[in-house]
Amino acid sequence: MDRMKEKDKFLERQIHELVEGVEGKISLNIELPAHTIQLHSDVPYSAASLIKLPILLEGFRQIQERKLDPEEVIPVTQEDKVGGAGVLSHLSPHTKVTVHDLLTLMIIVSDNTASNLLIDRMGMDSINGMCRLLGLEQTKLNRKLMDFEALESGVDNHISATDAVKCLKAMENEVLFQLSSRESMIRILQNQQFYQKLPGSMDRNKVFTANKTGELPGVEHDSAIIRYNQKTVYAAVLIDELKDSSEGSGLIMKVGKCLNDYLLT
């Protein structure tokens, strides 16, 4: 036990040393099996695409309650399409996808069009109700994705590092969800195509990763479930007010490497 505590404290020192020299506001919450590393973890940040975590959770809650049919076919009109990450905005104007496809695309390629279609289908109030149900104290969906007019007027979506970790843990442990729902959500996160941040320097042949990133101008986030053998780490690193976004993503990748080494040694 003493060796484990020493190992946890060494990791904490490593991470604090990494974040000291980086410009920007940094928040993190890293839950180890027997220790938690926190830095400004309850401060609300611009959520960017991390807001898609509670949208995913509410989607599967509504599927369980039969309010949402995963096989329902949703048309994607030209008016629905928005820019940023994703593929739907680049497909033909007569594209149709299922609700389950929308949930998958929203996470694995962070598709903003898919996210907005789900917000329309489920309702913003219902998604915020899920946030309250899970005790996400700093998380609120206030606008759709890529709504820069709302953003310029001061309306934004928010989340904290603590809340992002709560979302990840809910996908594995929350009794609100059936086992099949939890397995489906984790599988979607595991198939993430944007793994250059926390998992970027990990040995992904050995270490299980399931993550969701977020980015906006000056904003770099990542959140992940990381597992090796019987040890699981839940991590969220949020960075705002960056002058150089590559510095933020690089820092997050270094934090991920520390977590990889912690699990493998």
UniProtKB/TrEMBL annotation:
What are the alphabetically sorted keywords of the record?
Hydrolase
Concerning InterPro entries, the annotation shows: Beta-lactam/transpept-like, Beta-lactam_cat, Beta-lactam_class-A
**Limits of the Beta-lactamase class A catalytic domain:** 37-238
- At the top level, the lineage of the source is Bacteria
Task: Give the SUPFAM superfamilies listed for this entry.
Answer: beta-lactamase/transpeptidase-like
Asked whether the UniProt record includes Hydrolase among its keywords, one would answer yes
One Gene Ontology molecular-function label: hydrolase activity
Record has Hydrolase as a keyword: yes
Q: Which PANTHER family match?
A: BETA-LACTAMASE, BETA-LACTAMASE-TYPE TRANSPEPTIDASE FOLD CONTAINING PROTEIN
Report what the protein is called: Serine hydrolase
